[in-house]
Amino acid sequence: MAVLEEGRGGLRASDADREQAIEILKAAFVRDRLARAEFEARVGQALASRTHAGLAAATDGIPGRLTADQPPGMPARVREQRTQREMSQGELAQALGVSRQTVISIENGRYLPSLPLAFTIARLFDLTVDTMFGPDQQKAGPR
Amino acid sequence: MMRFIRPRLRKPLLGGIAYLGIAAAWAIGSPTWGLAIVIAVVAVGQTVAWYAWTGEDTDESALLGSRADERQKQVGQRARALAGAVALAAAYVGLVITLAVKRADAWPFAVMLAVTGFAYLLGLSSYGSGEPASEDEVTAGHQTRSPVNS
């Protein structure tokens, strides 16, 4: 936890970050991955979170969860879209023509894809680049 | 030439050839061939080992096997930039130390320093935009339309 606090985890979370965390919790709830009581408890925790570390704790253990050092938005959406389609990281890598390590790096926010790769990712998920990678987009709607 | 060699084999083969060059130099410059033969055997072993390594699922093996994606190429470029910076620093330290002890054989370090410095400048000119400083398009009479000023 100390490591999280030293990195992005200690930074204050915005309302948009909290909304994104709640969207992840909602997605897990509707897929029956969270019981109602736990969902409500976690939403309460997310709403009360003041830092990224708090949001990471609220989404802990959920596919596509936020991590404390992960920039909100793009990486979470890539993982979210992949898990929604029940693709493995290797399958996504093969579809994109990149290595599995690169998919992992993108999902963890350690690597920002080039513009051509961003277009390829967006097309694969049938989304626009803006929807997929725009910093202010919180919901990934269909193209 | 390289097009006829499988991409996976190119870098392992180049590494082996580099070792064989050292073995040949030793064989030419030394009265005994023993070490040259040992180096040649190591070169062959290294080529085989590197080739086997290219089959693994790691960044390093992707770079070695000439099948790196955009992120892995970036990793390779950063690693080469680090190696270049370290080589430059090592050449500088070597030059300073040899000059301080008043050794006459400081010239290899000076050559390394000059070559790496020149390579840096060559890289700047090769990979820079190379566009000459010209008049702004709008002021030159080419009115460009953009969403901002339209």
Protein architecture, described:
The complex is a heterodimer of chains A (143) and B (150). Chain A has helices at 2-6, 15-30, 36-48, 52-58, 74-84, 89-96, 100-107, 115-124, 129-133. Chain A is an all-alpha fold. Chain A is globular. Chain A starts with a helix and ends in a 10-residue tail after the last helix. The model of chain A is unreliable at 1-6 and 137-143 (pLDDT under 50). Chain B has two domains: 1-68, no CATH class; 69-127. Chain B contains five helices and no strands. Chain B is flat, with a radius of gyration of 23 Å. The model of chain B is unreliable at 144-150 (pLDDT under 50). Chain A binds chain B through residues 97-102, 105, 111, 113-114, 117, and chain B through 57-59, 62, 68-72.
Q: Please trace the helix and strand order of chain B, writing H or E for each element.
A: HHHHH
- Helical amount of chain B: 55-70%
Most extensive interface, chain pair and sizes: A-B, 11 and 9 residues
CATH topology term of the largest domain in chain A: 434 Repressor (Amino-terminal Domain)
Q: Major sheet of chain B, described briefly?
A: none
Structure at a glance:
The complex is a heterodimer of chains A (143) and B (150). Chain A has helices at residues 2-6, 15-30, 36-48, 52-58, 74-84, 89-96, 100-107, 115-124, 129-133. With 143 residues, chain A is an all-alpha fold.
